[in-house]
């Protein structure tokens, strides 16, 4: 799906630039004949942007698509039980989750709130269709005033996909704590690298190419560390360590299955965490 309009020049920096990396990876996947995700809006976005995506190096990988599927599945399950809920996508970047979920048979009553910095929200407004059910809040997720915009009457599902690892530990924990306080009965989902991986990124040891270095990741938790949040954060009723959905390839799926079920591997695998607020 190629846009008939001139491409939009995009210049993002720092953590915001990772939105372009994840978009490129995710848009490549649905072009494959054996794709694991259907994401026509991601393809449209990539085709509408003028940017040197080659700087990111090899992007023909499926990890971002697998992660997107995991967030889609958990969000969709919540919306089945709460069809008029509000989904809050923190630091949404150039994710296209709303469009995939909206096409997934959960009805047309749920609402969506995008929370991100102004350069990202302006870009989204240029590239994405304007919909009555999608609201945009141009600010940091750490400016808690976005919480005042959330209608809690019909349920709240908060996603922090690819966000918390880029926050300082006290900021990440503060965000989780405030969400638990403000949205009793709601849920929050996030992904985090294990501590060793975050430490490697902090030392500048992660590159996707000679031209691109992954931003520092101050925060990381293992699945067992995330499980302890129920004991240290008031308002968290339960913590779920979610498995990643199946990807493409028997070896990959076997490794993911083993990593999720063998306790010895807990410290070295990424955590996919779903919180239920009491």
UniProtKB/TrEMBL annotation:
It comes from Mycolicibacterium hodleri. Keywords: Methyltransferase, Transferase. GO terms for biological process: methylation. The keyword Glycosyltransferase does not apply. This is Class I SAM-dependent methyltransferase. GO terms for molecular function: methyltransferase activity. SUPFAM superfamilies: S-adenosyl-L-methionine-dependent methyltransferases (SSF53335). Gene3D superfamilies: Vaccinia Virus protein VP39. The keyword Transferase applies.
């Amino acid at each position: 799906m190629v846009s008939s309009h001139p491409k939009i020049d995009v210049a993002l920096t720092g953590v915001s630039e990772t939105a372009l990396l994840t978009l490129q990876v995710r848009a490549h996947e649905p072009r494959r004949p054996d794709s694991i995700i259907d994401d026509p809006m991601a393809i449209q976005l990539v085709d509408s942007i003028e940017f040197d995506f080659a700087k990111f190096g090899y992007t023909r990988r499926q990890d971002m698509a697998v992660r997107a599927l995991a967030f889609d599945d958990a969000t969709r399950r919540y919306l089945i039980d709460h069809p008029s809920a509000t989904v809050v996508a923190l630091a949404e970047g150039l994710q296209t989750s709303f469009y995939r979920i909206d096409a997934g048979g959960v009805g047309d009553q749920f609402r969506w709130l995008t929370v991100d910095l102004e350069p990202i929200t302006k870009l989204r407004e240029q590239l994405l269709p304007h919909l009555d059910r999608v609201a945009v809040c141009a600010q940091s997720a750490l400016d808690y005033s976005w919480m005042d915009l959330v209608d809690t009457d019909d349920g709240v599902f908060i996603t922090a996909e690819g966000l918390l690892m880029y926050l300082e530990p006290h900021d990440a924990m503060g965000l989780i704590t405030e969400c638990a306080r403000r949205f009793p009965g709601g849920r929050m989902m996030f992904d985090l690298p294990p501590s060793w991986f975050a430490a490697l990124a902090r030392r500048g040891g992660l590159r996707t190419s000679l031209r691109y270095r992954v931003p520092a990741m101050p925060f990381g938790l293992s699945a067992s560390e995330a499980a302890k949040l129920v004991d240290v954060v008031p308002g968290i009723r339960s913590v779920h360590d979610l498995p990643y959905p199946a990807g493409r390839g028997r070896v990959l799926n076997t490794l993911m299955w083993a990593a999720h079920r063998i306790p010895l591997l807990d410290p070295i695998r990424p955590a996919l965490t779903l919180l239920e607020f009491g």
